[in-house]
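Proteins fold reproducibly. Consider a sample protein:
=====
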Amino acid sequence: MVNSSSSGNEPGANPPSRPTIRPAQRQIPSSHSTGHSGSVDSANAHSSHGEQPLPSRRELRRREAEAAAAHGQPTAVYSDAPPMYAEQEPVHSSQDVTGRRRRGQSRQREPLGPIRGTVRTFGELCITAGLVLILFVVWQLWWTDIQANRDNEVLADELTQDWANQDPNELPDDPDEPVVADPVEKNHAFGIFYIPRFGDDYYRTVAEGVDLEPVLNRMGVGRYPNSAMPGEVGNFSVAGHRVTYGKPFNQIAKLRPGDEIIVQTKDGFYTYTFRNFDIILPDAVEVLSPVPDEPEYKGKDRILTMTACNPMFSARERYVAYAELTDWTPAQDGPPKNIKDSKAYDKVSQNGGA
């Protein structure tokens, strides 16, 4: 044995080949041979006739399917591929399908606790209150001006039409003596204010009384009861809003000494010249006296006193502007030159005014 074996170190000898590893094959056991000798004989028999491997699992399934088809039985399709979807529970009714769809589309809301519910309700109330407050501010600062200005235009047109149908009062003998306007009933208009300092198109009606409704909120400027009438000796005292509702005295703080304030009535035009101003508390009613701040004196001057809230958007004080009558023009002589060509007078006189 030693001599017949060849060594890889000998010259000219072929190099040894790499050993081949074959997979183990299952063998069919023999039904006739038992024990050790039988297994050896069976192995010898297989080795003499050639080794036959057992059929694979796929082949067995195929054979079973063919056998079932031959006998007319239903066949099953087998696949070694892993399932693509997870197994689902069987659906028993349409209600189960609808319920699963609803649960898949939206999760059930968790109930709010008492604390979270209270906080959420409070937040919603705050948002609602904020929206209501914003709407109120818009209405107060914007819409009331639009409505009051519209009412003022209508009232001025009606007033000038009434004047066109009435005769003015008889003029006094002294041409420098102004005609005193006749008193009117409460909440009735009797004149129109022109203040060039406030703009070329500025005009506001003046009515009897200082109540918010309907005078100050819808009619413009209001005359304090028991004060003097335009052109009369004493203190012709009026009040007006500084903000909202047409804000007739919004620019009262812009008046400068020498500025003219013209008041038109049925009888003519009364020109007051601004002198000075003061800031007082709301209960300082002595500024409405015939001589402002001097209630015990009657006086001989013809004074105009205009009052408005101060500061802006507040009513804790009053801004008071004082003016004195410096000229008057009868209605038949036409308006003073400082408003004759103004947009305000042109608009007022379109309906038959003076």
Observations:
- Confidence is low (pLDDT under 50) at residues 1-13, 26-49.
- The longest helix spans residues 114-164.
- The helical segments are 35-49, 57-70, 94-105, 114-164, 212-219, 337-340, 343-348.
- The first strand starts at residue 189 and ends at 194.
